[in-house]
User: Fold Thioredoxin domain-containing protein from Halobacteriovorax vibrionivorans.
Amino acid sequence: MNKLRLVLSIVFTGVLLSSFTAHAQKEDYSDLLKTQVTSTKINDSNFLVINLRNKEGWHTYWENPGDSGLATEFEFKDQGDKIVLEMVEWPTPHKFIEKGDIQTFGHKNDYSYFFYLNNQFKNSDNFQVHLKYLICRDICIPQEKIIKGTFSDGKFSSSQNDITISESEIVERFNNLPRKRTLPTYLNITLTQHGDDMALFYNITGEGQKLKRAQNILTPYTTSPFTFKREKIYKDKKGNHYGSFMMDWDGAYLEPEYPLPEDGNFKEPITFKFVFNDPVTNESYRVDYEVASFGKNGESFSSFYKTLTPVDNTQKKVDSKVMNNQSGSSLPYFLLMAFIGGLILNIMPCVLPVISLKLFGLIKHSKESRGRIFKHNLFYSLGVMATFVALAAAIVGLKASGEQVGWGFQLQSPLFVSLMVFVIFIMALNLFGLFEFKTPGGSTLGNVEIRNTYSGDFISGVLATILSTPCSAPFLGTALTFAFSESTLNIFLIFLFIGLGLSAPFLLTGFFPALIRFLPKPGMWMEHVKKLLGLTLILTVVWLLDVYSALVGSAVAMMYIKSALVFTFFFFYMRKKMTKKVYATILVLIPTLYLGYTSVTTPLNTSGSGNSLIEDKKREGLEWVKWTEDAMNQRINEKKLTFIDFTARWCITCKVNEKLVINTDSFKEMVDENNVDLLLGDWTKKDGHIGKWLKSQGMVGVPAYFVIDDKGNLIKLGETISLSEVKKALGVN
Assistant:
């Protein structure tokens, strides 16, 4: 039977390949897989890196392709001569159930292969990488690519690269390879004969086990002379998992033939290799199981397994990782969430200064015609929508380059924050009456201030959008998670609907001006309110300076930017008060521009000795510990009560939650009485590890709160919290 199956498989694969090859010759499928070949140095070792990006919905195959498929092959040539490079590890595979109920293992989306380099490639003007792969969706297409390049001083470069992956992402992929570890004590494996076949049984002990979606617990590498069938998973009442593989013994097809030993002892020990998706630690790593003999009690194992509950792990749970498959039916729901989230942003503290300015403008325009009121609000809305489109475009571009991005990503840029400091500071000076922007022609055209023009409305919309990103309003997190994991079109749709929500109140008053009649009438009181609004903008500048300080970690850069702000003030003050405005410009503008430029070009302090958020948080009386996945997993394994806070200096919603919940005496009492550990994830600066982990949990921004209960369960609380909610999740009073 095995011989017949092997012959049929060979014939079937041959027919498929010949058919697909003929089909592929007629069509250009080169865009199904894009490549970048580069080199990198990690931990004092040099590696050749092959970065691949599959077209959405398509996959290639792992070292063990499963029921069908062909593993990707790599061939290298230096100066025309074939050479062999050792792969570090195959990336962790995904499990696919293809048409006809065919189970395969492979790779999708973005992934990388790493090969050890040695010093012989220090310089080479003719290096070649030859890829042979089978890429599949509804059909399978055999393809190959040859990437040529050169080594110069140990660094590889090629003009044939289709994509560019950032160095930080490459290092992260390298660190996530399934490295070999010692077989954990809680994983027990047994090899036994089962009728005419072989079987491998295993069980995992320990509480709080969680399976990875659409993944085997054990994914077997190819191991001759065995052929693994499908993994079956079971669970007992305590939550322990059990698994089994039926296997074919293919020794009869070897040369010389190797019959299955009747006494159960192999000629030489056989080593099985697996990628272990550990349900206890939630990590993926490689384990080896060496066996010199096998038992003959497979039927008794099968009888025991029949008393357990089967676990179907082939379907993914509904979360951000599978929204691509649901986008057609779920898109209207997420667009609604985006609209509601944008609407709620209007009352969030991060945008209140600019929203207040816009309301101030509404009062000023309340006596104008309906058409002019509509135009003012329309241009404000256009500013909002244009900025959201620009943000969406930036996110699409960064994702295409392999960067990890999330909501509020631009506030992780010192250059952007410093620019916003000056823009908002100048707006505040405008409100304090130090200057007015005038239209061309000056008094001839009426000295119209920019804040009262359509240009001013548009700029107000831009600023409202930029300042909204430190906030993650309720409903918005759901929509953003969907957007950041979706296609380019849906990213733009989600962001447009957030913009519609943010601008909806003003669009509504534009269509129905009577709605603003509840606002007070214009009068002298507005001059005093104008100064108050200027003060709110100054406070916004103070907040942004704190963010800037945390990003640059440099006292020198802070000195420059503060000095530039002082000169900016005197520039506008002297223009207002001095008669010789040209001299004021020369005297003040040049040092202002110099100091502003120097503040953003000063080398950043990357030593971590800058303004530490965790130290600031400790001053509130709580002993925070820096979040890492290892620190979190350790507490999960120990079943230690833990509260996890992902935050950033630029996150206003985080500050509100801290004021109302985290920094209260009641929260501190709860932590002390129940010996709760506190982990802090600081996302003020760009941190790929935090960004990637939050995305895996269905979140793309901060705040984000989690707890670990006394059973070792990791529980997501979301973006807003209450003390009662935290206590309930922790299981304490």
Notes: Confidence is low (pLDDT under 50) at residues 1-27, 315-329, 437-451, 606-611. Residues 323-417+437-534 form one domain.
